[in-house]
Amino acid sequence: xxxxxxxxxxxxxxxxxxxxxxxxxxxxxxxxxxxxxxxxxxxxxxxxxxxxxxxxxxxxxxxxxxxxxxxxxxxxxxxxxxxxxxxxxxxxxxxxxxxxxxxxxxxxxxxxxxxxxxxxxxxxxxxxxxxxxxxxxxxxxxxxxxxxxxxxxxxxxxxxxxxxxxxxxxxxxxxxxxxxxxxxxxxxxxxxxxxxxxxxxxxxxxxxxxxxxxxxxxxxxxxxxxxxxxxxxxxxxxxxxxxxxxxxxxxxxxxxxxxxxxxxxxxxxxxxxxxxxxxxxxxxxxxxxxxxxxxxxxxxxxxxxxxxxxxxxxxxxxxxxxxxxxxxxxx
Length: 331
Ligand SMILES: Cc1ncc(C[n+]2csc(CCOP(=O)(O)OP(=O)(O)O)c2C)c(N)n1
Ligand SMILES: [Mg+2]
Fold this sequence. Notes:
Elements: H1 5-8, H2 13-38, H3 52-60, E1 68-70, H4 76-81, H5 86-93, H6 128-141, E2 148-153, H7 160-171, E3 176-182, E4 185-186, E5 189-190, E6 211-215, H8 219-234, E7 240-245, H9 264-271, H10 275-285, H11 291-314
């Protein structure tokens, strides 16, 4: 019998189940956030749906004790893997004082948590890219064993920040993993109207680094390519550019109506490749998952989602004076 793909990659059955559970947790938190938004309880949602495999596959390939992640707004799968809890994510959704990302001051999706090596980002897309390059430069100067992992959308790969950051990392051979989560749209603009080249990864050669395009619906393929990139980075061989191809299964955000720019059939077709379904099917085919275990995992996930929702909904808001903190000096 042929060896299972995850065993070939050195991943145990327990590890791939953990990956699946993390993907499912991200999906269920996201779904709950949409319900809360439509019920008028939380102001805004920007989804990870459709990108969980890329996010979780990549984050599992990194070292949580050493590496820094600079995620973008859809990366719930990355931050959950690095240790942010469902409760903390819900506190951010409800904009409560205890939200570790910003104390409820930022929109959801502006992830940042020092304890878990999640570097805070800003609202202009792609600003996290030069930050990741800077952290990698500092790590190299201090001779630390670390890589930085930065994500962004394919639309964002057209911003100057990406090109400046990638070139600097290429010149100085910095341990940066640039991962573009290509979900085929930048709000209403389809991929065909975004890139002059065929693939985002075609740009790697211009910056002296290897480039790869992989199936973003397959967490194992993403794990493999990110693991290899991390190993190259640790060996001093410089940066890598990885493009994960998937599809944005929701509108851009809770404030967008995607029916105005894409056909419902297109979305329905993409849903047949939903990574939660396809990875679940792989785990069943290989005998790692069965219906009973699937139910047990789903129940455990839903318990966490319910507890996080109740906790965050009942948590206090910050005092109004808090709005003045971190804006002006205290002197
Ligand atoms: C510099 C800048 N320009 C425009 C925006 C508004 N904006 C927010 S998300 C977004 C689309 C980004 O698309 P992409 O990079 O493909 O990421 P996706 O949302 O598809 O994951 C835009 C234009 C912004 N936040 N920052
Ligand atoms: Mg996009």
